[in-house]
Write a structure and sequence with these properties.
Strand content of chain A: 5-15%
Largest sheet of chain A: 5 strands, mixed
Structural class of chain B: alpha/beta
Number of helices of chain B: 8
Largest sheet of chain B: 6 strands, parallel
Distance between the termini of chain A: 18 Å
Radius of gyration of chain B: 19 Å
Shape of chain B: globular
Oligomer: heterodimer
Strand order of the largest sheet of chain A: 3-4-5-14-13
Number of helices of chain A: 31
Helix content of chain B: 25-40%
Largest interface: A-B, 37 and 30 residues
Number of strands of chain B: 8
């Protein structure tokens, strides 16, 4: 596939457009809430009317040359805010404007709008304020200590993916379904009949709103077409106007219609609120393939046109940075990516191999577009061909971190265990980072990262947090009080349970704030069976509901517990007093002990049961504390093991640890071994990582680093394919290959202890980078500089 | 496996030359701080230990259609153990390979033959005196064992370390090409060209040994491709790398 001039231009524009804050949405929603219309109606209707008001009054943006239209803000990368969720202060805006990384330009007009209109109206009224006022003192203490984070504090619940149905259905059809659902309400026996009628009314308003919004685009396209001099472009604009009059009211019938249909839906979701992980078309190859095939057979779609459409579609995602954070979170590094994760491959609803021509076409698009958003992954089932994996490796080797590899067969078993039916499970996949979900039928919320390492630190200090100087956990004793290693793990389990209770109680309250104040009638239209149930997505209306808490630091905590067990209890190399002194001084003056902790102590990631059994113990403790606990909107709490970048934040609140880690440095990420401790090769890593039971999670994350030269010779693809298939046959959920750059290699020279796992291709064979002489290391760095694209 | 009758100038596993356990000096860093430790190179393993290690890797071996390769050093310097270990591996269904210099008695080769699915067989130089100079031994026995194994129908991958200035001159190359053309048969499956590299250099320092290949550079990718084409002239499959 070769990108056309059109797509190249749009791609460049997207890459160079400046991320900026627009006050457009915040002003519209403020004006709507101030109006009389908002006051005397139920919450769902109020939210539907607000949605309608925004879509009716926001600026329509059509960019030169594009084939798919619609921007969340007035221009590409103009990013709106959501004061009803969380209100930026003028200081927050200044931080966003001036921070060196992931900044957003804030001009004087925006600042004035905030100062004069938005801040005066929303102060004390945002859902963030509401949440913070509702949390218990224990919750606040734990939150400040960095025991857990809170997802819903700055963004609405999300983590949901569009399923099969909505790619085949228009909103006029949904209006019929709403009508039917309303007609079936039982006001005699159903106590919730009234609430349901209000919710259905709200959904109906949201249907009208999105159709109206598409037509506003059609109007604008027609207006531009009149004065367009170029005959080709004129015809394109007229065709686009036709499409915007058809979708999303009616079901799409061509590739172009389907992409535009999805894009209006996407915009609707991210305009209504700022749900986590934006929104996601999910199994795009599956959805597009039938219409693509039909158009190919009829001869109505050329390869060039297809490539243009997909390129334009990709650019749309990149035009939409993740909504900016605030407060503590804003001054840290964050990311522009909004975690839309396109799924390719996997299996069909009947369980057969789903890889099709469109899967390969989309892999080509990913390779050629090479942009941050959307992100992409391949679902790999035992039924999928090796060729599909090789094609994915072709892109992975270029080193931009996509696509990641997921185990379809494990995902299906995870979903079945949670009670999904087999078809819904096969229609599922992973979204966000690695989160398992039944696409189109499940609302699966991530609620916060959970700092397992910090909890262990508190367990060793009688629940007292030395960083904040606050009694934070239970008084289970000090390190020296634990006579055996089992005593320590029992106390740790008590602390985990204590903090899990705090977090779950908080979740069950926060969930109700969204149910009562911020329902999402538009998003509810998209997920089965909200219309059928007459219930909102934020109120348990979907067929399946899951609430996740994400464990962080498995590699670190395993190494810490293993070190304590090995050095203090089993071999008595150090006493608790000696170890505590070293930890208190952050190893200053304890170099030899630190050396032993790093190099002469068993570590997770080397297929060594002595170490790995602590991973299993911690996993089971975490699982028992959370899995199956009821959630207030319906469904239950479950666990997954992923960090995004929270392992850095969690490390920054955690002192020195018994694995030799210095105070306030990052924890391990996902279920990967701690940075660099796996020195027995990738097969040992996958063996260690598969000792925990992935099938009882909603996703785990495993990263492996390779140098680009590793992909050079013929056999490397076969080896990596065998590695992936091996891990997946052990029920591993996800593996990602990070191809390192020269900068990483230079860092490895400076901090060899953090890169003991780094394998490089030398000359027809591979070796650990650390084991090479410095001149050879330099040679490889030079080669990497040339080869990394 | 530790211990080798050859001592090639370019050896990248110098700790494999002596059949005895040796003390190596390991220098490890944490940040800028260096830690020096004395460690033993060489451990004792039983055939059962080997099976346990393989069991850990079984899932990957199966998915990659791989197997076990005994390498060294020269594995045939410990023929009794090698035989026991190979037989144990075969009894568990593993594909077995022996990576050899070819410098061992015909009797030794004949004893391990029944349990070896594939020999990775090094040919370093076609000329006897130059072979002697660079490796410390003559190549006569090596070549006669190779002929014997091929006659007996054993599967062979020839491995040529490509050492600039030592065996990549036209005469040496022609000599090897001629030899392989004569030996060509169905069970001579492949020629692997192993480009010289200096990864062993750091190990020489650890063992306090002198490194003789300081001035030799790694052959370029272009050069390796040329040599691949050259040896393809024998009609045997050629690949670059192990």
């Amino acid at each position: 596939m070769i990108l056309s001039e059109r797509v190249k231009k749009l791609r460049t524009q997207s890459l160079t457009a400046e991320e900026r804050i627009t006050a457009e949405r915040a002003l519209l929603v403020t004006r709507f809430y101030k109006s009389g219309e908002a006051r005397e109606v139920s919450a769902p209707v109020r939210r539907a009317l607000a949605f309608q008001y925004i879509l009716k009054n926001k600026k329509i943006c059509i960019n030169d040359g594009e084939l798919i239209v619609g921007e969340r803000g007035p221009a590409p990368k103009a990013t709106p805010t959501y004061p009803e969720i969380s209100l930026h202060s003028l200081q927050d805006l200044e931080i966003l404007n001036s921070r060196p990384k992931v900044s957003f330009k804030v001009d004087d007009e925006v600042k004035a709008a905030y100062r004069d209109e938005i801040i005066p109206f929303w102060t004390g009224k945002s859902n963030r304020d509401r949440i913070m006022s509702l949390m218990t003192p224990e919750w606040i203490t734990a939150y400040n200590a960095g025991i857990f984070t809170e997802f819903q504090e700055q963004r609405a619940p999300g983590h949901t993916v569009l399923g099969y149905k909505m790619f085949r259905t228009g909103f006029n059809q949904l209006k019929e379904e709403i009508k039917e659902s309303l007609s079936k309400l039982d006001f005699f026996n159903d106590r919730d009949a009234f609430e349901k009628s209000e919710e259905l009314k709200a959904m109906d308003i949201a249907c009208d709103a999105i159709i109206m919004y598409a037509r506003r685009h059609a109007d604008e396209l027609e207006r531009i077409a009149v004065s367009e001099k170029d005959e080709n472009r004129k015809a394109e604009l007229e065709e686009m106007a036709r499409i915007c009059r058809k979708v999303p009211g009616e079901a799409p019938e061509t590739v172009h219609e389907m992409l535009q249909h999805y894009w209006f839906i996407h915009l609707g979701v991210i305009t209504e609120l700022n749900p986590w992980d934006s929104f996601n078309p999910g199994r795009l190859d599956q959805h597009l393939y039938p219409v693509y095939k039909k158009e190919k057979e009829e001869g109505t779609l050329t390869d060039e046109k297809l490539s243009d459409l997909l390129g334009c579609f990709w650019v749309k995602f990149n035009n939409h940075p993740s909504p900016p954070k605030m407060g503590v979170t804003a001054s840290e590094s964050s990311t522009y990516t909004d975690f839309c994760l396109i799924n390719l491959g996997g299996v069909k609803p009947d369980g057969t191999d789903a890889v099709n021509e469109m899967s390969y076409i989309l892999l080509d698009v990913i390779k050629e577009m090479r942009i941050l958003q959307p992100s992409s992954m391949v679902q790999i089932s035992k039924k999928n061909p090796d060729r599909f994996i090789h094609k994915a490796l072709d892109i992975i080797r270029t080193g931009f971190g996509q696509p990641s590899c997921f185990n379809t067969d494990a995902i299906i078993q995870e979903l079945l265990r949670q009670g999904k039916n087999i078809v819904d499970a096969r229609n599922g996949g992973a979204s966000g980072c690695v989160e398992t979900g039944a696409f189109g039928t499940e609302s699966y919320w991530l609620t916060g990262y959970f700092n397992l390492v910090k909890i262990l630190e508190l367990t060793l200090n009688n629940g007292f947090d030395r960083r904040t100087g606050v009694q934070t956990g239970l008084k289970t004793g000090f390190a020296t009080d634990y006579k055996t290693f089992d005593d320590l793990t029992l106390a740790f389990a008590k602390q985990v349970k204590y903090f899990a209770d705090i977090k779950i109680r908080g979740n069950n309250v926060i969930s109700k704030t969204f149910e009562n104040y911020l329902p999402v009638p538009f998003l509810s239209l998209l997920l089965e069976d909200c219309i059928l149930n007459g219930k909102d997505y934020n109120c348990g209306g979907t067929r399946y509901n899951t609430t996740y808490i994400q464990g962080v630091g498995l590699g670190s905590i395993t190494d810490i517990l293993t070190s304590i067990r090995y050095n203090v209890y089993d071999n008595k190399r150090f006493t608790w007093d000696e170890l505590n002194k070293a930890l208190d001084s952050d190893f200053e003056g304890y170099d030899d002990m630190r050396y032993d902790l790093i190099y002469n102590t068993p570590k997770y990631g080397n297929d060594d049961d002595y170490a790995d059994q602590q991973a299993v113990t911690v996993f089971e403790i975490f699982y028992d504390a959370i899995n199956g606990r009821p959630a207030s909107r319906g469904g239950v709490h479950r666990i997954n093991m992923l960090p995004t970048t929270s392992h850095v934040y969690f490390g920054s609140v955690t002192g020195a640890t018994a694995d030799g880690r210095k105070a306030f440095t990052p924890l391990s990420e996902g279920i990967s071994p701690s940075q660099g401790v796996d020195s027995h090769g990738p097969t040992s890593v996958i063996k260690s990582a598969s000792k925990i039971d992935h099938l009882r999670t909603g996703g785990t994350l495993l990263n492996q680093k390779f140098s680009p030269q590793f992909f050079e010779d013929e056999d490397s693809y076969k080896c990596l394919t065998a590695l992936i298939r091996s891990y997946f046959s052990l029920d591993g959920h996800h593996i990602q290959f990070n191809v390192v750059n020269a900068e990483t290699l230079r860092d490895a020279q400076k901090h060899p202890e953090l890169y003991r796992d780094l394998i490089v291709r030398v000359a027809g064979y591979s070796d650990y980078f650390n084991d090479l002489g410095e001149d050879l290391q330099n040679e490889i760095i030079q080669r990497t500089e040339h080869e990394n694209i | 496996m530790k211990g080798c009758p050859l001592s090639c100038w370019w050896c990248h596993n110098p700790e494999g030359i002596s059949p005895e356990q040796e003390i190596v000096t390991e220098i490890r860093k944490i940040g800028e701080t260096e830690f020096t430790t004395q460690e033993l190179a060489g451990k004792y393993y039983s055939a059962r230990d080997i099976l346990e290690i393989l069991e850990k890797e079984r899932i990957f071996i199966e998915h990659s259609h791989g197997g076990v390769t005994f390498s060294g050093g020269e594995p045939l310097m410990q023929t009794d153990f090698l035989l026991e270990a190979l037989a144990a591996c075969k009894s568990k269904g593993y594909h077995t390979a022996v990576d050899t210099s070819g410098y061992s008695s015909e009797l030794n080769f004949r004893s391990v033959m029944p349990y070896t699915d594939l020999f990775l067989y090094d040919i370093k130089h076609p000329d006897e005196s130059r072979h002697f100079e660079y490796t410390g031994v003559s190549n006569t026995l090596i070549i006669s064992n190779l002929r014997m194994l091929l006659r007996e129908g054993k599967n062979i991958f020839i491995r040529i370390p490509v050492i600039p200035g030592k065996n990549d001159d036209p005469e040496s190359l022609e000599g090897m090409k001629k030899m392989f053309s004569e030996l060509k048969c169905d069970n001579l499956k492949q020629i692997s060209l192993l480009p010289f590299h200096r990864t062993g250099k750091a190990k020489y320092r650890k063992l306090h040994l002198h490194y003789r290949m300081e001035e030799t550079a790694q052959p370029s990718v272009v050069r390796m491709k040329e040599l691949k084409e050259f040896f393809e002239g024998t009609g045997i499959k050629v690949r670059i790398g192990a």
